[in-house]
């Protein structure tokens, strides 16, 4: 799987609740199975944090390049048999 990074410098938004995706999946699965734990019609928006990058695009690209090189160097560190 290829890892990519954002090409823009727009602000990023993330939910305050870190497990929001799994909660949504559980709610959808329960609803599909006929388990009505939550009223799906009265769900309110989730509070989110918003932030903007504080480094330049050039610095971001340099850091990302170094990170990819570090990840590649870590391949095959564990040579023990499973």
At a glance:
This protein has 82 residues and is an alpha+beta fold. The chain has one domain. The chain has 2 helices and 2 strands, in the order βαβα.
First-last Cα distance: 23 Å
Rg result: 20 Å
N-to-C SSE string, H for helix and E for strand = EHEH
- Provide the domain count: 1
Looking at the structure, what is the overall shape?
A: flat
Into which percent range does the helicity of residues fall? 25-40%
Cross-sheet strand order for the largest sheet: 1-2
Mean pLDDT across the residues is: 81
Low-confidence stretches: none
- Secondary structure tally, helices: 2
SS content category: alpha+beta
How many strands appear in the DSSP assignment? 2
